[in-house]
Amino acid sequence: METSLAGTDLPKTAEQAVTIFSDKEWWAGIGATGLKIVAIIVIAVIFKYIIKAAVANIFKVRLKSPLRLSEKRENTLFRLLNNVATYVIYFIAILAILGEFMDVRGILAGAGVLGLAIGFGAQNLVRDIITGFFIIFENQFSVGDTVRIASFEGTVEEIGLRTTKIKSWTGELHILPNSSITEVTNFSVHNSIAVVDLSIAYEEDIDKAQRIIEDVVKRVKPDYPEMVKDPEVLGVQMLGASEVIIRVTSEVLPMTHFKIARELRKTLKLELEKAGIEIPYPKMVTYHKEANSKENKNKMEG
């Protein structure tokens, strides 16, 4: 016995569902939409790998360039470009997928209003991110650099889009919002100058002391690879109350001037002692008036 859908007492919604699911055009539309979504995903993944390969090849070419950037700078830019490219591709792919189901223009308009509201409520966060981006992009400082920011001085441990972490030489870790970074002093960009001031007694031969110092600094130069140029004896820097100060300078690699200055002071002090050059120290002269008066009286009587 044959039955038909029209003769059955199915609910109206069930009849509509059966009609929809039995519609070949509906299934064809579902299949076409599914294929489009798969194609969008595949194209997005392919584009992502193509752009990553292109960025990698660009940085490989820069490795052979005489004007290449520092390794830390190149790694930072490489990761930044890859992340930005990935976010842009995935954002476009999501919009394309949503466009298969609804009007994307309404979504974009709503996202704009939502972004405006979030922007008003999180202005400091937006400033932190923008400042962090320009710190990385302009290479103002890198991880491992020694910097001074406001009253904080130390080694940069981490640079993020929102915060920067600085570790001081005593071990404290300072976490600074990027928007608070207005002035930066970077000690790791250019070579440093080691300055050594030596005190010589007034009674000593200054020319002899300078010759000894010049011979010593030339002799010790090969022992310290941190020295970029030969140390220079500038001569008498100042005349003190009980000493003549001779200044010695040396251009060294960044942030090695403290070490070189300490080593030079030690070596020069030992060499001057060997040569009999006295380094001044506080002295006190006492004068006894009564004793001197008796002495003069005895001389007169004699």
From TrEMBL:
Subcellular location: Cell membrane
Membrane topology classification: Multi-pass membrane protein
Cellular component GO terms held in the UniProt record: plasma membrane
Ribonucleoprotein recorded as keyword: no
GO molecular function, one term: mechanosensitive monoatomic ion channel activity
SUPFAM superfamilies: Mechanosensitive channel protein MscS (YggB), C-terminal domain, Mechanosensitive channel protein MscS (YggB), transmembrane region, Sm-like ribonucleoproteins
Taxonomic superkingdom: Bacteria
Entry keyword annotation includes Transmembrane: yes
Residue intervals passing through the bilayer: 37-59, 80-98, 104-126
Sequence ranges assigned to domain Mechanosensitive ion channel MscS in this UniProt record: 124-188
Keywords for the protein's UniProt record, in alphabetical order: Cell membrane, Membrane, Transmembrane, Transmembrane helix
Residues annotated as domain Mechanosensitive ion channel MscS C-terminal: 195-279
UniProt domain Mechanosensitive ion channel transmembrane helices 2/3: residue ranges: 84-123
UniProt main location, coarse: membrane
Known role: May play a role in resistance to osmotic downshock.
Family: Belongs to the MscS (TC 1.A.23) family.
Protein name, per record: Mechanosensitive ion channel protein MscS
